Amino acid sequence: MLFLNLLAWLSVAAGCGGGTPAPPSFAEQLAAAAQIANPEARARRYLQLGLKLLSARDEARAQEAFRSAAASAQAVAEPATRCELLALTAKAQLQVNNMTGVRQALDQARAARDSISDSIEQATATATLASALGRLGDRAAALALLDDACGRVRSGGEGESAAAALATLALRYHELSQSAAARDTLAEAVSLARALPSARARGRSLARLAVSYGKLELARDAETLFSEAEQAIESISEPEGRAFGLAELAEALRSAKQPARAAEALSQARRQAEQIKAPDVRRQAEARIEQAARGK
């Protein structure tokens, strides 16, 4: 019996006997990444592999992956996404001390950001760029970017998208240890969210802002906003609106590490979905609820 067990072990070790095949090598994974047609997906895959290679202490191939990520990011047509990817690439290259690559990626990210005409999209892209500059140690430049982006949102943005952009900028202020600016910016976002005429949009925006307050370690403010979000959703008269609103609330609660409350919101959402009379709308609501349940 001992001999048979040893033989089985040797067979598996040699790749025989139905054992689990060895995972692809990093070289194979890099080669596979090069075949990804979509430049955004290709850039994200290269970034992922580069970080894995760093963990494996293979700095040379990590640098190769990050260079490929930068090249792929440059091929992305949409400027906001291109800016985000290039800023992420700059932060990644900083980890391998490739300062030439860092500066080149940041310059390209700035150019991409400057080509964005929409003030809200530009603010979101600016937040990512400022985060990269902060990681590089250029706090003054990062703060100047954030101040400029906030001004653009105030002058040209409104509604839910403006609230979301301000929340993103607030978190970047927090990264740079600017607590007062982070709180003030997030308070502006809350004012915009509270003014939304749609109860569902108001509930969704307030719930997401509650998550942002949690990241700033302001638990009491976060709980206040979650309560307001719940009240907004409860005020929706039709079951389909409540079902979708509760699914969105559940996603925010999950992000805030409140699984029990998220599960309760999903249960309520399912009960509301059962009351929807139109079959196609009911199916859409059920699909949205299950998406929230999966955390995707």
Pick out its properties:
single chain; mainly alpha; 80% helix; globular
Could you list the spans in which at least 5 consecutive residues all have pLDDT below 50?
Answer: 2-16
Q: Please estimate the helix content.
A: over 70%
Order of helices and strands: HHHHHHHHHHHHHHH
Number of strands: 0
Shape by Cα distribution: globular
Reported for the largest beta sheet, the result is: none
How many helices in DSSP terms?
15
Task: Bin the strand percentage.
Answer: under 5%
Q: From the helix content, strand content and strand pairing, which structural class follows?
A: mainly alpha
Mean pLDDT: 89
Give the termini distance in whole angstroms.
Answer: 48 Å
- Gyration radius, in Å: 24 Å
State the gist of this model.
The protein is mainly α and 296 residues long. Helices cover 80% and strands 0% of the residues.
Descriptive account of the structure:
This protein is an all-alpha fold. The protein has a domain at 31-114. Helix content is 80%, strand content 0%. The longest helix has 18 residues, at 119-136. The termini are far apart. Residues 2-16 have low confidence and may be disordered.
